[in-house]
Write a structure and sequence with these properties.
21 helices, 50% helix, alpha/beta, single chain, 567 residues, Nucleotidyltransferase, domain 5, 5-stranded mixed β-sheet, 3-stranded antiparallel β-sheet, disordered N terminus
């Protein structure tokens, strides 16, 4: 009888049997084992010992590693907070980082808000599936939670901004405007602050965007702004408020200034308080003049419409421009919006760019023959385009928001004024008629070149007093220029004295002629001396440099950086 060993069909597990795979110890892949040592306790239970604090934790094949991660990331008293798991190792395979649900929700909130996406997006199944694929630790949350996070972030950032404004070394400037929604018919107010911080960095922040309650008159709006300033505790730190030309804004500024003057918190008696929006004023000036050349503009609009209304005609037009005249056809023709004069300028600019194409089509196509402008009309368009270019450049200069602009307003206003005066005496009769109402509007808003424009220009080291005097001299003659510059310098000196009284911690350095103010120009009463500034400044290369109004004086010097280095 054969033994069981020889008759059994079961293979013998001797380590070399081809039917039974040898057991292997699986490699641990989790990064927690770089901070833990696996072993057994007295009860022969599998444990993991923390390398940092020495505590024993339950381990084993059925225990998982979640409780081990929580210990290392949250509970271990000796392991540094915020350090990713396995950071001390050079092995980058499978690196795990700390998962913070609050930070993830914050990033999702910014993604929703910055993209104007609906809050209900976080409840969408596809969104949640994507987040689970990205990180298994993701915990779904509702739109209500997202709204709560939004308000929490807003309140936190608002308190930080309040602290920054209260610690600002100088005064702040506000810009406010009202807006009416075409969908809800609700009126809103927006208040923006501009200030320079301790590091001489220019900042722009929206402080308030709020729905208004009727009535929408100047007094009600001023009360809204006054309560806001009082709530933020910045009512005694405001230098100016910039507004557009709406009628209710004049009443609002008058009422708000009277409230602040009564409290004695406005600087220099409030003469710098009301600032008119320069870009808005230029818009009013141009629109008052364009109405007198509607016949010329109308023919240009008809010409553009003829090209744009037919896809085949438009294709033929740009093919001729590219093949016959080698023009850049990426530059397209566009109709203007008649309420936006700068779009009218761009329309003229593009039409003149394709002038040779229009002339060619007018000579070979009957459809264009009677609609293409005549030679006389082309000449008028060129004159109007050149005239409007100065205003367009000034608007772009005023509209910069990442660099200081108050120091260049004077130059822009002077260039506009000089252009209007010279054009009113020029050879083009149709342009003289166009300029008359524009010059009238300019005199209404900028006849005295608001004092703050002149003071800011003097503080620009590229302009100083000499440039202000030169500009006034070109427009009003030497005698009247001397009086106007004297008023500006008297205002600037009194403003300086006010700052000097407010300063109690840092020493005051009396301005020298290099800073734009010459002490010899003033008498004992801080009045401007009768002596002309021209005799106070020696002739140098600066004169010819400043006397060129077309020179770009804005790109060669950062004004804030200059004063930071020379403060």
């Amino acid at each position: 009888m054969e033994s069981d060993a020889t008759t059994s069909s079961m293979p013998v597990e001797d380590g070399y049997n081809e039917y039974v795979a040898p057991k292997r110890k699986r490699k641990k892949k989790s990064l927690v084992w770089r901070d833990l040592l696996e072993g057994k306790n007295e009860k022969v239970e599998v444990i993991a010992t923390c390398k940092h604090c020495g505590i024993d934790l339950v381990s084993g094949s059925t225990s998982g590693t979640s409780h081990l991660k929580r210990h290392l990331l949250e509970r271990c008293p000796k392991r540094p907070n915020g350090v990713p798991l396995g950071e001390a190792s050079n092995d980058d395979e499978g690196r795990e980082f700390i998962f913070d649900m609050k930070e993830l929700r914050k990033e999702i909130l910014l993604y929703v808000v910055e993209g104007s996406r609906p809050f209900s997006m976080v409840e969408d199944k596809a969104f949640r599936r994507m987040m689970f694929k990205a990180t298994p630790h993701f915990k779904p949350f509702s739109r209500t939670t997202l709204t709560s996070d939004l308000f929490s972030m807003y309140y936190s950032d608002r308190e930080k901004l309040k602290t920054i404004l209260l610690s600002a070394p100088g005064l702040i400037c506000l810009t406010t405007d009202n807006w009416k929604s075409s969908h809800t018919w609700q009126h809103y107010i927006c208040i923006t602050v501009h200030f320079v911080d301790n590091d001489w960095k220019l900042h722009k922040r929206i402080l308030r965007f709020k729905a208004l309650s009727p009535p929408y008159d100047g007094e009600s709006i001023s009360e809204e702004i006054y309560m806001f300033l009082n709530h933020w505790r910045i009512d005694d730190n405001v230098l100016s408020v910039a507004v557009d030309n709406a009628s209710y804004n004049d009443a609002m500024i008058t009422h708000l200034r009277s409230r602040l003057v009564a409290r004695g918190v406005l600087r220099h008696g409030g003469c710098f308080f009301h600032i008119r929006c320069c870009a808005h004023i230029i818009n009013l000036i141009i629109r008052s003049g364009l109405g007198l050349i509607q016949s010329i503009l109308g023919s240009v609009r008809n010409l553009v419409k003829m090209i744009m209304r037919s896809s085949s005609r438009s294709k033929d037009f740009y093919d001729v421009a590219q093949k016959n005249f080698h023009l850049d056809v990426k530059r397209k023709l566009h109709l203007d919006m008649q309420i936006r004069w700068n779009s009218t300028y761009k329309m003229l600019d593009n039409v003149l760019y394709y002038k040779v194409v229009f002339l060619h089509l007018g000579s070979v196509h009957v459809a264009f023959k009677y609609i293409v402008p005549t030679d006389d009309e082309w000449e008028k368009l060129i004159v109007v385009h050149k005239f409007l270019k100065l205003f367009y450049d000034a608007t772009c200069m005023f509209s910069a928001n990442k660099s200081p602009t108050s120091n260049i307003y004077f130059k822009g206003a002077w260039m506009v004024h000089r252009c209007l005066v010279e054009t009113s005496k020029g050879p083009h009769v149709f342009l003289r008629d166009m300029v008359k109402p524009m010059l009238k509007n300019f005199d209404k808003y900028w006849s005295d070149y608001n004092v703050y424009l002149s003071c800011a220009a003097i503080l620009d080291p590229r302009f100083k007093v000499k440039f202000v005097e030169y500009c006034f001299d070109k427009l009003f003659g030497p005698d009247e220029a001397m009086v106007k510059v004297g008023e500006v310098l008297t205002t600037l000196r009194s403003l300086y004295d006010e700052y000097k009284l407010r300063s109690s911690t840092s020493p005051i350095v009396v301005p020298t002629p290099t800073s734009g103010i010459d002490d010899d120009l003033f008498d004992d009463n801080h009045s401007y001396s009768s002596r002309s500034i021209r005799t106070q400044i020696t002739k140098s290369q600066l004169d010819s440099y400043l006397e060129d109004p077309e020179r770009d004086l804005n790109s060669e010097l950062n004004v804030l950086e200059f004063w930071q280095q020379n403060s």
